[in-house]
Specification:
By secondary structure, the protein is of the alpha/beta class. The protein has six helices and ten strands, in the order βββαββαβαααβαβββ.
């Protein structure tokens, strides 16, 4: 697969196998894809199809068993654990189905958390950035509320603000509407699209729900560990 100048993520022949006792589970079986800078991409498929495995490899959380995975032309397989951790810290944002917020921290503190140990930003600068992002996602009135004082949609808005904190190149969202009702899910999807355009940040959204895919620039359908169809909006 030829590398293009605007490619952010390139996967070629990507496979991932796991050993479960004497059984080998083939989670990915040769996936190919191009994700360009600024894309808003959906990866769809049923449970167990390999969607989350693909996302974990794109986010430098897992290693492929075979094939190539590149970030702006750099093969992630050539990097050691520390270099991969720096990519996760500096270039990737994550949004999870279950929000992954710390119950004892308020919204501002939860957004600040990923960079609390970064000496480049003092606490005042970090707090100001977290507040700005929370206002941007519509939570300027809920800055000091803890997660148990927020609705599911508000919790996911906090998670989106947190994912944007490090000005990432790409945000990977794993079933981000899975815990939400359909109305709130639509609001969250529209918010992510707004953040994609406003920040020019690439989004890859893993979901089994096809209701939202018309919002995507690209849609990859995965089945049994293979990408069986892809749609690129003209």
């Amino acid at each position: 697969m030829k590398q293009h100048e605007n490619d952010l993520i390139t996967a070629e022949g990507l496979c991932r196998e796991y050993k479960m006792g004497e059984v080998t589970v083939k989670a990915l079986r040769g996936a190919d894809l191009h994700i360009h800078k600024g894309d808003f991409v959906f990866v769809i498929g049923p449970s167990g199809s390999g969607k989350s495995t693909l996302m974990h490899i794109m986010g430098a959380l897992d290693h492929p068993t075979c094939g190539i995975i590149r970030l702006e032309g750099h093969d992630l397989r050539d990097l050691d654990d520390w270099q991969l951790s720096m990519i996760r810290r500096n270039r990737v944002g994550f949004i999870f189905q279950t929000f992954n917020l710390v119950p004892s921290l308020n919204a501002v503190e939860n957004v600040m958390l990923p960079l609390m140990t970064d000496n480049k930003l003092n606490e005042e600068e970090l707090t100001a950035k977290a507040i700005r992002l929370l206002r941007e996602v519509g939570l300027g009135h809920r800055l000091h509320h803890t997660p148990n004082e927020l609705s599911g949609g508000e919790r996911q808005r906090v998670a989106i603000a947190r994912a944007l904190l490090n000005d990432p190149d790409i945000i990977l969202a794993d079933e981000p509407t899975g815990e939400l009702d359909s109305v709130t899910g639509t609001e969250i999807m529209e918010l992510m699209r707004k953040m994609n355009r406003g920040h020019r940040t690439t989004f890859v959204i893993v979901t089994h729900d096809t209701e939202y895919i018309k919002k995507g620039d690209k849609v990859y359908q995965i089945k049994d560990g293979k990408i069986v169809e892809n749609y690129v909006k003209k």
